[in-house]
Each structure stands twice: as C-alpha cells, then as structure tokens.
Recover the amino acids of this structure.
C-alpha cells in the first residue's frame, strides 16, 4: 500500500462538487491539497471550508483557469512553492453544454472542448516535470459519456471521448517515468454540474465523496498495479 503521508496534490476545479469531494478525501489521508478555481476568491473560500472540515493536512486555494496554459502553470508553480513538491494531479475541471447539433453555438462547442479536453492537456503539460521528480500520479475525471454517445451531446461526448483516449495515451507515454495515469468515468453524480443543485431526490446517484474515496483507493494501490480506466455508475438507478 502506498504511503500517503507528506504527499501533495493539486485538484483543478476543486471549489465544489466532485473536485471538492476529492480534495476532502485527500486531506483526510494527510495529503496537502491545492485546489483551483477560475475565481480566486471562491478557491480561497473553498480551501478555508476544507481546512475547517479536515485538520489532517492543509488546503490551499489558487486561481487556475485550465483553458489558459499560463494560468494553470502558475497554479502548479504556486503549489510547489507552498508545499515543496507535487505528487498527485487531478484534472477535474469540466463543464457541459447540451443541445442538438443544429442549435449548439460555436462558442459553446469551443468552451466545452477547451475546458474538458484541452484543459487536461494543459494541466499535465504544466505538471509533468514535477510528477517525473516525484514519480507521481495523474488522474483525469472523464465520464461514461466518454464511451456512450447520446442525443444533444455532440460537444460533451466529443470532449469526454477525447479525454478518455487522451488519458490512456498519456498513460502509455509516462509509465516509463514511473508516473501512474488513470481516468475515472462516472455516471450520474449528485453535484453542481450544469447548474444543478444537489437535493434529497439525488440520493440514488453517485456522491462526490464516493469519487474522492475512489481516488484514494487508486493512490493507495500497490505501485505494481495500475487500473488505467475505471467506469463507475449508480448501483440502482430509478425506474423509468
């Protein structure tokens, strides 16, 4: 089992939802965590909340826009400046625009691809040298939409199909450096995605803390074994 004490993680899009759940789970293991958000004040506020929830390690809130390489590079550099190294990077930041191909706007397509796919590319490019030094772990949060297409999902499907394939190619590129790379592909999650607010009727869905637990399980796994792609879905969805 991997020893998690004194490790350092960076979670993009960590101010709420899945990213926040992952950060909380990592902190509970004694891992210092930097979380990013496009608005620094929200990232700082979320980090303060995390530090009140967990006292096992420190959370740091940073501005980080994954659609801007220089912004995410600065977040990586600031993480290393604060904590001295970087062991784990979670490329979680994402969004979705859903409309038929007739109706989806060009700027919605571009924003989806830039955030969900190019954002992961920028994140690993910014952090790969640090992960080489630490023999670390890079995890992307894809989706079951990364292998299952649906109507009104052209932009989101394209971004997540791309992210799934991108992550697996990166895994093959980086394992020679003893860097582990995985993608997690959740189904329905009770989160703030696409303007949703979690509510009691979402209890059947995957919860953010479940994804956090899964990330911890991956990191704890014996280094000789690499689950490179994980699909996760609710056990019992509601009847249609």
């Amino acid at each position: 089992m991997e020893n998690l004490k004194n490790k350092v993680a960076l979670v993009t899009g960590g101010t709420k939802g899945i990213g926040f759940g992952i950060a909380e789970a990592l902190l509970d293991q004694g891992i210092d965590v930097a979380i990013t958000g496009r608005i620094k004040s929200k990232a700082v506020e979320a980090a303060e909340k995390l530090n009140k929830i967990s006292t096992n390690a420190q959370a740091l809130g940073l501005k980080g826009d994954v659609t801007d390489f220089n912004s995410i590079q600065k977040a990586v550099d600031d993480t290393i400046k604060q904590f001295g190294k970087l062991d784990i990077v979670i490329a979680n930041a994402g969004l979705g625009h859903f409309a038929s191909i007739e109706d989806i706007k060009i700027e919605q397509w571009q924003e989806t691809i830039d955030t969900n796919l190019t954002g992961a590319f920028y994140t690993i490019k910014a952090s790969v040298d640090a992960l080489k030094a630490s023999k670390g772990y890079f995890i992307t949060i894809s989706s079951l939409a990364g292998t299952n297409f649906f109507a009104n999902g052209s932009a989101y499907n394209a971004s997540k199909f791309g992210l799934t394939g991108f992550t697996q190619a990166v895994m093959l590129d980086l394992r020679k450096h003893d860097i582990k790379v995985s993608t997690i592909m959740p189904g329905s999650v009770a989160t703030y995605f696409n303007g949703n607010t979690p509510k009691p009727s979402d209890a059947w869905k995957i919860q953010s803390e479940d994804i956090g637990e899964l990330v911890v399980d991956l990191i704890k796994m014996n280094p000789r074994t690499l689950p490179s792609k994980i699909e996760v879905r609710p056990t019992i969805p509601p009847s249609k």
